[in-house]
């Protein structure tokens, strides 16, 4: 369980997150949506202590994040918009192994996790390649594999589909579906619901640092139009069992 209580975060005079109290139960697939600058990334960076609250607190599994950063980072895995900054080792396999190695796991367990995580993002043949020779989308997939290999209670992905081509998107979406089915909590930060609305248990929307909508996907759909969020339309649903759908771009970006 991730909980924020009265969480406020400021950058100078900008109030990026404004008194947000939110609970994310174990196993929940949550979509966090909202226009650019609404505070989504800032909020999730508090989930594992990458930022410190100006006011309020954040708890993971009942423990304040500030009291046990290691526990929070083990329980909550995070993949950011800019994967370039996240790759730490020279090769694809070594990069994905880095997190599990720091957990002190056996070599056998590390190898199993790395193999599974790379397969999940269709990079299983590429473990020996240099990370410096990868495309942006491939780097993003390595970053996702790195988070998967940690086998966290909650996996938080900030705009995970931005740099991915269609096969990669489908592969990541399929893996998220499996993870959720196996009991992992998933939080996807996005301003584009096309790929993921069908997977979600709940949609939370932010505007100006506040939670302005908290509903199940069907209920949320009707209210998202004013929030610059791209939503699937009913028209594409029939030929699209993955729930991707056609797009009604209700936003301006
Ligand atoms: N490092 C920073 N320094 C100063 N201001 C920041 C910083 N990061 C974000 N902000 C500001 O805080 C507010 C919330 O930004 P945040 O990135 O959390 O929103 P977001 O909803 O994730 O947006 P996006 O979809 O564009 O990533 C915005 O006004 C943004 O300009």
Provide a concise account of the structure shown:
The protein is built from seven helices and twelve strands.
What topology does this entry show?
Blueprint: E1 2-11, E2 14-24, E3 29-33, H1 40-45, E4 55-60, E5 63-64, H2 69-75, E6 76-79, H3 92-102, H4 107-120, H5 136-149, E7 154-158, H6 166-181, E8 185-190, E9 202-207, E10 210-215, H7 217-223, E11 230-233, E12 246-249
Parallel strand pairs: 3-8, 3-9, 6-7, 7-8
Antiparallel strand pairs: 1-2, 1-4, 4-5, 9-10, 11-12
Helix pairs in contact: 3-4, 3-5, 4-5
Function: Probably part of an ABC transporter complex. Responsible for energy coupling to the transport system.
Keywords: ATP-binding, Cell membrane, Membrane, Nucleotide-binding, Translocase, Transport
Membrane topology: Peripheral membrane protein
């Amino acid at each position: 369980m991730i909980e924020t209580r009265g969480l406020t975060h400021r950058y100078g005079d900008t109030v990026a997150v404004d008194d947000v109290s939110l609970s994310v139960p174990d196993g929940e697939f949550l979509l966090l949506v909202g226009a650019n600058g609404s505070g989504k990334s800032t909020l999730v960076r508090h989930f594992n202590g990458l930022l410190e609250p100006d006011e309020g607190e954040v708890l993971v599994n009942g423990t304040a994040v500030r009291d046990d950063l290691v526990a929070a980072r083990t329980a909550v895995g995070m993949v950011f918009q800019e994967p370039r900054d996240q790759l730490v080792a020279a090769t694809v396999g070594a990069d994905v192994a880095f997190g599990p190695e720091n957990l002190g796991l056996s070599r056998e367990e590390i190898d199993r996790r790395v193999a599974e995580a790379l397969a999940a993002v269709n990079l299983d043949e590429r473990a020996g390649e240099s990370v410096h020779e990868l495309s942006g989308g491939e780097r993003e997939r390595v970053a996702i594999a790195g988070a998967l290999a940690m086998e966290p209670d909650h996996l938080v992905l900030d705009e995970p589909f931005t740099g991915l081509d269609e096969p990669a998107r489908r592969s990541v979406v399929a893996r998220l579906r499996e993870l959720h089915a196996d009991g992992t909590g998933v939080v996807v930060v996005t301003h584009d619901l096309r790929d993921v609305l069908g997977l979600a248990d709940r949609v939370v929307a932010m505007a100006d640092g506040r939670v302005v909508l908290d509903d199940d996907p069907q209920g949320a759909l009707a209210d998202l139009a004013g929030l610059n969020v791209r939503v699937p339309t009913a028209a594409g649903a029939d030929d699209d069992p993955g729930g991707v759908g056609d797009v009604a771009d209700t936003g301006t970006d």
